Predict the structure.
Amino acid sequence: MCLAIPAKVIEVDKGVGKVDFGGVLRTVRLDLLEDVKSGDYVLVHVGFAIEKLDEEEAIECFKIWGAYGDTRA
Amino acid sequence: MKIKMEDGAGGEGMARFLETYVLGAFSNKKAGEIGLDDLDDGASVGDKIFTTDGYTVKPVVFPGGDIGRLAVCGTVNDISVMGAKPVALSSSMIIQSGLDIEVLEQVLQSMDEASQEAGVAIVCGDTKVVEENIAFFITTSGIGEANSALAKNIEVTNAYRKYQSRFIVDRELGEGDVIIVSGTVADHGATIISLRKGIEVESDLISDVAPLWGMIETAMNVGGITAMKDPTRGGISNVLNELSAKSGVGIEIDEERIPVKREVIATSEMLGLNYLDIASEGKVVMGVLKDCADDVLNALRSTKYGRDAEIIGRVVDDHGGVVIRTRVGGRRILHPPLGDPVPRVC
Amino acid sequence: MEIHELKNRINDPRVIENLLKAIRKLSDRIGPVRIMHVCGTHEHEIVRFGLRSLLPQEVEIISGPGCPVCVTPKRDIDRAIFLADRCIITTYGDMYRVPSNSGSFEAATSEGNDIRVVYSITDALDIAANEDKEVIHFGIGFETTSPASAAVLIDQPRNFSILSVHRLIPPALSFLLSPGEAKVDALLNPGHVSTIIGTEVYEDISKKFRIPQVVTGFEPADILLGIYMVMKQINEGRCEVENGYKRAIKREGNRKAQKILKEVFYIKDAEWRGFPEILDSGYGIRDKYEEWDALKKFEDELGDFVYEDQGEKGCRCGEVLRGLIKPEECGLFREVCSPSNPVGACMVSSEGACNIAFKFG
């Protein structure tokens, strides 16, 4: 439906935050979220952060799938 | 019917535009072995290579270069990928009245530096000043010559398979040949897109614009190169499809092996673009005989602009067109882009 | 951990391998299934990573009405083009080449109109702040994009208005699943819409239509996980809404965004390209913000806007959207209708099922 890309929050200044898409930084609006802190992961769509991403949850969820079979180094 | 942006954007739309309007309009289209209809990077005039290209990049100055460096390198590279040694350029400048003289001085200096690095002379030109809001346009044409490195390459190749042309053309890629790219893709295009009004990003993205004659000469001295193209507009998707179509062979590419900077991935993901469709201005895509591939790869990696060269695929006989094996192992057809990439949000 | 490291962890080859193994095992047990997603970006990622070439033949992924470009009526595009001679129109790139009766934004630009592609609606605001001419933003997008439009209007910007063509997903799902309309065994729900509206809102669809649903993310592993989870439900005879994108979605969604949405927009019946009108499926701008509603602000000028419907003869975008036929089954596909000469919007958008079938085939 919509292209929302994960980014890491670098700094927050009132309703606006600077985020890192992976070597590319952009300012995004934080109107749609509450208490965003630097270090958070957010999903960005059309220049707005639309939700926070839970990094642990992602690792947990896919760890189970990765654990089967041979676990290469 | 009106002319559209995609008619000049280096993709499938432009190919159709040229076939429909341009190629049909001219009667005399050859002055040597390679002519207009070949739509190769250059044509041959007797035993020389001759080519031309127009440059309208905005902004005029960008991280990694400017329209001057681009105008020299673009034409030097078009000559070099034919295997010819660039010897002489012309430069026609069309400048908007009101442009800062400092910008002109910087552009001219860049042209001088790039032509010195490529060992090519700027022997003639023209300058016009106009009122239209175009900032700066440069058209460069160039002549290239046969040379000992090219002769060595053809000689090594002929030991394996008869190479028909005296230069390196798009139509002689053969079965089993390996596909090599000389470094990270889409650097130039991603840099320009990231500077576009409204995108407003900060990054270390920098254009890769560079004169490649030296690197190509080094690689040809190893030998076994059967095809070469510089992946400018339309990116490697375009050149791979052109090589596949003109040589009548199938190509298989491994997405994982394609070198690409993380900033380029981030910019293309953010804007919903495919970096395989985005331009480079200092890279070559080569077809190389399988037995010579490793030596050519090492030769490339020993040069300044070929450090990140990689083998990214091979010619196959089980299908036509270009198929890409994706990072998760799936396979899909890689089509040439229609026109310039347009950012999407959905 | 950096973003790309997180992605590599999620798409680890062993994860992909094990998900595919589990899907194959389930497929042997439950036989052929038709799983529909309703998201242009899901289709784009499925094709970009060649996922269909990895799935068993019996697992068919079909593409429902999922890109605003595919479903935005031509009337609205023509209305924006009509206003383009007196205003600056801003639009997202997706709409730029969508064909309508009076050409397209791209064609209108080559005829001298000022129509600009923006990455974010905030860029449209910057243009409005720096230009004398009024700016109208062509407001496409579903519940993911609408809150951004709402947040901008709350600030009551100067020299700026929105032509809202925003749509809602759940009503379209219900319409799609009404008996006989689409042969679908399960749904992959759009992950990013659901970050806003949550998963609860889909629950009565599962009850009413007895169909399993999994809200799905967009990495290759996310998509395979969604497919695995709906097939597991089918195997166990369950028809529930499950959250397959837990790192981004809460059951209740993004409350703050929902509040902002309600403040500016009300829900109305709306027309979709290729469909009859669907009840409660569009966002209109409330009277409180009518000064920023282009339909109201330019009501007089729009008085002489005339729109004659020229249904594209033979175009079956509606049926492609409903998953009743594949793009290849439409008579216009490839010969008449191609990315460089799109008839229906599903061919023009890089998200449209026909465009992707043509390109990535």
Q: What stands out?
A: The first strand of chain A starts at residue 5 and ends at 13. The first helix of chain A runs from residue 55 to 67. The interface with chain C takes residues 1-4, 6-8, 20-22, 29, 31-34, 41, 43, 45-48, 50-51, 53-55, 57-59, 61-62, 65-66, 68-72 of chain A (CB under 8 Å). Confidence is low (pLDDT under 50) at residues 69-73 of chain A.
